[in-house]
Amino acid sequence: MEEGKEGRKKKEREVEEEKGEEKRKVGRPSKAEGMRDRVYSLSLIDAFKRGEKRKEIDALQADIFKKSIKVLKSPEKQLEKQPEKQEEAGLSEILREVKEGFKEVKAELREVKEGKAEMREWMEDMRKRLDSLKKRVQEIEKSRGREEKEEGVEERKEEEKKLAYAGEIDSKSINNIMSANNKPRSPRLNGTQRTATRSREQQQNGEKEKGRDEGIRRKDEENRRTCMIKRKKSYDLNRKCNYNLNTNWLHLCLTRYKCACVGVYCDQGIFSYPGVKAKEKGIEVLRKDIEDIVGATARVEGIRSIEKKDKKGKEMVWVRLASVGEKIEVMKGKAKLRERREWIVDDLTEKERRIEWWIRKREGRKVRVRYMKIWIEEKLWVWDEIKDELREWHGKKVREWKGLLKCGRHGKQREEFQGETKRMGCDVPK
User: Fold this and answer.
1) Start-to-end CA span in the chain (Å)
2) Percent of the chain with pLDDT over 70
3) Between 250 and which of 39, 319, 335, 428 could a Cys-Cys bridge form, CB atoms 3.0 to 4.6 Å apart?
4) Which residues pair with 392 in a beta bridge?
5) Helix, strand, or coil (residue 290)
6) What are the boundaries of the region Disordered (predicted)?
């Protein structure tokens, strides 16, 4: 049995040499033979890469057959079939145009420089000519002075000869005539004469200083009078107006930060409008501008100047509207004035602002702030730098803070202000 098995194993089946096939063993295949076949097989990734390489080779072959061997002589056809060259040609044309433009600019700059050089040369020539003319004028003046001196000397000599020949005057008189013709000499003075002249000079200087002081004093008085007159006029205008909140007067005034803009103040409001004059033409212009800019139909009844001008000479006036409702419509459209750099600053007069301050004071707390200290309800709080905190001051007594109200302290002003504050329902300070 064992010999039979060994014989079977040794038997082999040979492949025919004509077919070119390999020799294989006869019998049942083992596991090792199956593993040998798998070693020679490809993975999926390698198969995929081979397929991509084949596609690239096929595409290259197709492109080779598509290209023609013909030579294109006309450049237009070349550009049509090759868009890349078209773009290059366009860029080259643009570069040429840019270079030509640079050349033109350079030529213009050269011309300008040449013109500047010519102007400098011309200016230098003019200066030289002026210098030469000045020198000539000086020489002419000197020559004239010499000629005049020579003529005067000759005339004096002739006069001396005539007088000496006539024998009318002596040599002393001749010397006196010569001294009279020349500049007057200061005579020699005694001690008393010198003291007298000094006292006279001192008196004259003192009178001059007094005159100067009087002139300065007069100018100061005139300036004060003009200021007082202006203040009186403005005060009279303010007194003539009604201080009620339901007034319809508008008052033109300068804004603080932009002198070119003029604002229209009312007793409780401001509508800006530059350069309005107190005439009928100004009324018509103001009506049109109110309708166009603000978008409100306001009837202007009158305008009155207040004799104030800005740096450009524009007048400031008061404007009276027909009703309070129209004024309210104008005030609603104040935001539209920003395009013209004109705006409404505040909608209250100075007195009405003080009244509002007293109302706020009655409703809230009284506070005053200074450097590193603050008063709250008449109590002083100080900032402690060491502890870095705010602490109450327990030292000396703190004075009550009175003083925001500067108007209406005495006389008729006080009575008027007390009446207005009572109408508003405010407490009047004593």
Assistant:
1) 147
2) 38
3) 319
4) 381
5) helix
6) 1-34, 133-160, 173-219
